[in-house]
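ok so i was messing around last nite and threw this chain in just to see what happens. nothing serious, just curious
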Amino acid sequence: MKVKRIEAHHITVPLIAPYKLSKKYGTVTHAQAVITRVHTDDGLVGIGEANPMPPFTEETWGSVFAAVEHHLGPLLLGTDPRNITACNGLFDSALAGNLLAKGCLDVALWDLLGKSLNAPVHRLLGGALRSEIPLLWPLGSGTPQEDVDRIRAKMDEGYRTFMIKMGALPIDTEIARCEAIVEAFGETIRYNVDANQGWDLAQTLAFMDGTRGLPMDFVEQPLPRTADWGLPEVRARATHPISADEGVQTMADATTLAAAHAVDVFSLKISKNGGITRTWQVAQVAAAFGIRCLMNSMIECGVSQAAALHVGAALPNLWDSGQCYMSTKRLKDDVTDFGSLIHDAVATVPDGPGLGITLDEDRLQKYTDASLVLE
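result:
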């Protein structure tokens, strides 16, 4: 089996409602994705996805295209795509970093490997430990009453875990949001807080002191990713576990944070971490240090969501609450049938070959802004 053709499509899909994040990221109205297809000489096709989201990611869709077209794709043509480790080695020999570009091809290679063996990706990772995974629903920045109203509406749909986006409002308001959630729902729900790098050390410590005693799963990425030196102090002062997201992209990041005992949770994202291979490696570093993992998401289409679902199904150190498999529910449309796996705020792990989902050609073409082909 050899790779004979590689395609990349940049797509833009509108969100159902604007998503208010921290002051660093602003408000998001559209999902940006690069969908890749890797064709082999025996007719199999693997699909992948990257989710550029500047300034969360350093890469843009244009840089992903350039990396695939001029550096990574030419190396992949003519190789056996089932040799995933060797292919990733070729990618690393050509470019440092560029995890999104490498990841969208890596996911396609795992999809191809599964299809070639007639096996789901989770079986190739060691087997599924769970057949269903409850979903988490994220709430954008808002007032305490808006949070309560939105949580109540989503509870009617079956959600019991929520991620509260912070980092855009004064700390006193953010504390009041947590107090309102606890007063309204007690321990009938699980929730965590994600500041998306929106606080400095003083603000983070003020939030920790102000929410002391309130039930909360964890606080995610309160400090800028370059300020990981402050996380041990935060963790020592906090009564809540600390999660790293932007701060844990590579295995080197994971090892540094784990060795410093700076965090309790790694927030994993297939696109951010560079595909299935690298995400799995970061998760193994976490396991070695007793750190649990949340399967988080960018604003993704169904390919990245499916890849994350397979990883989450096989992870022994998965965080014990809802996971972020709801991304396509925030979109007005998707280019895959991933949504068929979601019912009553639960994701069912697919058992079909590879990723176990299909790409809709008509919808792919509808949302494509630019494309490239390598042969």
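not much to say yet. The chain has a mean pLDDT of 95.
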